[in-house]
Amino acid sequence: MEAKSFERTKTLATIREFVEKEIILLEPLLLNHEYDVLTEQLAEKRQMAKSLGFWFPQIPPKYGGMGLSLFEYGQDQRFAAFGKMIPLMARAALETTGMKI
Fold it and tell me: What pTM was estimated for this model as a whole?
């Protein structure tokens, strides 16, 4: 159990760092209505999130997700409060499944 706890702590630190260093920096593009640049940058950041394994947190790994429990998913969502760009990242995740919001 201790190894899993350490791994989870490491994952949360990486998620927080990704949000702080990559996602929040996009907010000026949104606020300044620079949508063409924002769209391009969001696509890049989505690919980064996927490559880091931070995609579909609640979906089992055999279907391409992280397989997080409800509690773990809640831990990850704390970082959604850090910026306005997180919902746009989440929207992209839903749209890749064919869902529209």
Answer: 0.73
